[in-house]
Structures are given as C-alpha cells and as structure tokens.
Amino acid sequence: MYGECLDVLRAFPDCSIDSVVTDVPYGLGDDPTPEELVAYILGADLKTGEFMNKDWEIPSVPTWKEVFRVLKPGAFVFTFAGCRTQDIIALGLRAAGFESRDCIDVEMGPPILRWIRAQGMPKSVDVGKEFRKAGEESLATLFCGHGTALKTYWEPILIFRKPILEKTLLAQVKATGTGILNIDASRVKHSSPEDFAKHKAGVDAIKKRGGKMEGSWKNSSDLSGANDVSLEGRYPSNVLFVHSDLCRKKGTTTSPMQPINRFDDGAKPFGGGAGHSYTTHEREDEVITIWDCHPSCPVYHLGKQHKDAPKFFYGFDPEANFFYVPKPSKKDKSEGLPEDEQNLHVSVKSVKLMQYLVKMATPKGGVVLDLYCGSGSTCVAAANEGFDFIGIEREEPSVITARARVAKALEERASRTPSQDLLDSLELE
Question: Which CA distances in Å does 394 have to 374, 376, 386?
C-alpha cells in the first residue's frame, strides 16, 4: 500500500495481523541527546540527521503503538536494526507495549537474531585524511590509520511479541494461533544419518538418566521428559551466517533426504508423542550448493575451527548445517523487473533470508505485515512461503519495483498451488 505507514495503519482493524517482518529505518545519523530520547518515548518523531546523503529517522512510538493495535495478541515482530541504534528501536517497541523475546521464545539471552556476514561497509571517518584536507600535515601523519567506527559484519534482528491476552499461552494459541514460533520450519538439519543417530543416542541417554544434567546450571530439573530428537533437525539458534560476497558457487550435488514421521493428531513440540499414531512421509533428494569459499568467509571458518560447530546452526546444505545466504544478487533484487530496469533500493534484503524469518514468525494461514516494504523482499518471501501479506511503502519508485517483484512471485506461486491474487496489497492509491 502506498503511503506513510502510520497513516495507512490507522485504517486497519484491530487484531487483524498475524506477524510483522520488516526492515525499519535505522536512524544512522547523529546520536540523539538525552532530551530527544525522552521526547521520543513520549511520542515525538526522532530524526537523526543526514547520513550517506539521506535524512534518517527511527519508527516513532505512535507507529509502534498502531502496529501493536493491529497485531493479534501474542503475535511477533521481527525487525532488522542497526548495530548502533538497536537500543533505540527496541526502546520504541517497549514504549509501545511489546515484550522482548529470545528467538527461541524463551526469556534468556539477548532478544535478537544475529545475521553474520563476511562483508560490510565501514561507517567511519578517516581522521588522517580529514587532517590532510584541513592542511594539518603533521597531524595527518600522526593520526594516519585512525578512524571512528568498525566495519559492520553483522546486523541484529530484534524479536518482540505483543503480550498474550488469554490466561495461558496454550489458550492464546488455541484462540488465535499466535504467541509461538514455528520451530520445525527453522530446525538445523543433521549432517548425516550418523549425526542423527549420535544426537538421538545422547538425548535418549539424558532422558533415561533424568535428574540434574551433570556440570550444567541450566538443567536442574527432571529431564526424563526432554524433547525427542526430530528428523527435522536440531533446535534453531539465534545466529545466522552468510557467505562472503567473494565466495563462488562451484556447482551443485544432491543428497538423499531422510523420511519424516509426522504425528497424525498434530505436532508434539514439548514431547509426549509416545503411543500416538504417525505417518511416514518420503522426501525428494536435496540439491546442495558447492562453494569455493574466500578466506574471509565466516561459513568457512566456523567449520575450520571446530568440526562439530556447524551442527548447531541452520543451513540449507547438510554438510554445512548453518543458515547462510549471500547478500542479494542483482538477479535476486530485480527478479520480475524489465530487463532494462534495476532495483535501486539502498537496503535490499535477501528473499531467502526473509523466507526463513517469515515462516518462523507467522502461523499457518496467517497474514504478514511489512510496514517499511521497500522494494518488496518480505512480500516476495511471504508469497513464496504461501502466506498472505500486506506491504506499506511511501516511496513511489520502490512501490513500483515491489509490485513487479511480487507479481512475478505470485505468478510462480500460482503455477505451484492455487492462490489468492494479493497484488492489491501493494496497489498504488
């Protein structure tokens, strides 16, 4: 939808949206004063000045309050944030009434996912060069090689949740389907049948032993009811890895996928599946990308430093076992656009990354909202995953780009399964 997100949101009915997955403005200009922060909490806009030839702002508390109003109780907000301003963005969400959550839906650790990549642009001032420009040659020599900031190799993804309205979480899930994350859609694949067997043997031994897990402060209660090991993979973590732009794809291979046993009466996320009937589902072979990694690549170094480390991070390739996606290529950015046009948005996120977040945050059949739609990556991701969606964007060129990209995604989705035409969700008004 074309317009200012706050104005557009005011027309939405209460409790009508199932999740928010968005990439908000980071506010990367000047650091706000304490007085400006107080005014921001009380509802004022927070503009941080010019950065990279553009004025920046941070979503206002009234904007987050409108998001709070339109979300169903228990619904999640996943939003990217800048390393330097994530605290302010989180403050705005808290001021609007949201509660901070860990990405695995327990109150432990920082309420963020970390998207770690191998390249970033330094937002730093070369002090030596600045002195040289000012004619201070001796100071230029003295401070040569000094700057004001580090290169950004990671971006936080804040995870907040609208408080549940029902008396219990289970009652909320029953009423609206919200309040929980889709863990099975985000699990870490086992690297091999042997890896699965070893993992299962370890957990079975813990369950059989019960009691306190030796040497661990985290598990002091009875462990006999611990979760069964899933053929879907290990439990997802709050760290995502991305290949360096300097890595190169060498080709592909295939790997047989293990069949999955699904309970006929629904998933058992907290164990308790003994005695329930299930159906075995066969799966097609997985296509695996083979990479020639650059020495700077975190994907390469994770496996190099410890052979077991990759087992605990989400990935598409079984031998890698952690979630990694390259920065979006020109093809990824411009899919659906005419050949002579390019996606010129300054902060395009990978569709594959957004698909991972959308399916984790959104209940089956839910509606995804991106209040800063940009060129439409979240909407394309939602379309690819079979969700309905709404995108809001105030810059007309970005809306036109998003409509073209979404049209292509919906066309491909329609060729796979019958779907509702959702192009009006990005319609220029």
Answer: 8, 12, 25
